[in-house]
Amino acid sequence: MRRVQLNQLTENMTLAKSIYHDGNLILAKGMDKLKDYVDKLEKFGIFSVYVKDDVSVDIEVLDAIHYETREKCKRILNSCFNTIKNQGNLSNNIIDEMVISILSDLFEKEDVIVSMADIGVKDDATLIHSVNTAVFSVLTGRRMNLSEIELKNLAEGALLHDIGKVLISSNILLKDGKLSDDEFANIKEHSLLGYEILLERTNMSEEARKIALQHHERLDGSGYPYGLYGDQISKLARIVAVSDVYDALTAERCYRKSMSNFKAYSIIKQDVGIKYDEEVFKKFMLNIAVYPNGVVVHLSDGTHGIVSRQNKGMPFRPVVRVIDDKDKEDIKLYDLNLLDDYGIYILD
After folding, report:
1. Domain ranges of the chain
2. Which long-range contacts (CB under 8 A, 24 or more apart) does 36-43 make?
3. Do residues 214 and 233 touch, judged by C-beta distance below 8 A?
4. Domain 67-285 falls in which CATH fold?
5. CA–CA separation, 64 and 60 (whole Å)
6. So which residues are the catalytic ones?
7. Is 276 left (phi over 0), alpha (psi -120 to 50) or beta?
8. Any idea of the CA torsion for 150, 131, 258, 175, to the nearest 10 degrees?
């Protein structure tokens, strides 16, 4: 399996991961002739898909949580958001169900390295982002040896960190192109709005609520809503801050294609110790494939290929399935472990 942009689809590719919108199937796993569906996918704001072909048939691209858990969490979040819009309150039981499901899935697996991204339509962007942010945050918190209570608070706060956006106009949230100063100021209100919504959830800890309030605060005081500095920002909010921005950079949006994991890593790293907590970032990166399984990479020796496997603790030196296509009539494939040859590296 591998992820490709729509303009890279070829006739020998079949869909490796079904695509849904609001619980309804758009395209089913196993479908072929994918080029015929490019216009349909682009209308939904989808620019890439997971496929299988001769090169990637045995490459695994695994998610950190079960598909059923991910879909259940998105469904529950959507119900929560709609309830807030219509009734102004939250249901405690279904939120607890989300938290338990995510924690259970993540504690099933050791040393998870996330390669798979959740592909969805633009209307589902906030739901997908909320679940991704929770997954990244809990994995990071576990690396930081947080207690079970802290991990529960972290999962709950991360899932609901953007809940204030339900009170922001969808015309702004889904706008194609750059926001005006007034529109950006409006979006920035979601942190405080979310905190105020969560004050109504009486069985939620203050540490979990602070995640919604503080996840856009930065160590140097450049964040919002209060311009807090350093340790004025809660530990859990500092974890979610990194997870939040990473997922925002690597996710597809209705107005742009996703950024590569390496590019997102590079952007965040520039501000580590300035805007983002250094320990959090180090632990966060232990869970992320900088070059995910299935992605096409170009090597320093002039060859190219597809990442086929990760090397634990060495995110910049995975195993690459090199595609030797100098002879178009006789294309050869071989796996190159970059740990075995430090003279060869992946180009930026």
Report:
1. 2-52, 67-285, 296-337
2. 38/6, 38/7, 38/9, 41/6, 42/6
3. yes
4. Hypothetical protein af1432 (1.10.3210)
5. 13
6. 165
7. beta
8. -110
The segments of the chain whose pLDDT lies below 50 read: 121
Contacts from 105-113 at CB under 8 Å and sequence distance 24+?
105/64, 105/65, 105/66, 105/69, 106/64, 106/65, 106/135, 106/138, 106/139, 106/142, 109/64, 111/312, 112/64, 112/139, 112/287, 113/286, 113/287, 113/288, 113/289, 113/310, 113/312, 113/315
**Averaged pLDDT of the chain:** 88
- Does the predicted model carry a pTM greater than 0.85? yes
Q: What is the per-residue pLDDT for 253?
A: 63
**110's torsion region: left (phi>0), alpha (psi -120 to 50) or beta?**
beta
- Please write down the HEC assignment for all residues of 319-338: EEEEEECCCCCCCEEEEEEC
Report the Cα–Cα distance between both ends of the chain, in Å, rounded: 23
Which pLDDT belongs to residue 23? 67
Which one-letter amino acid corresponds to residue 272?
V
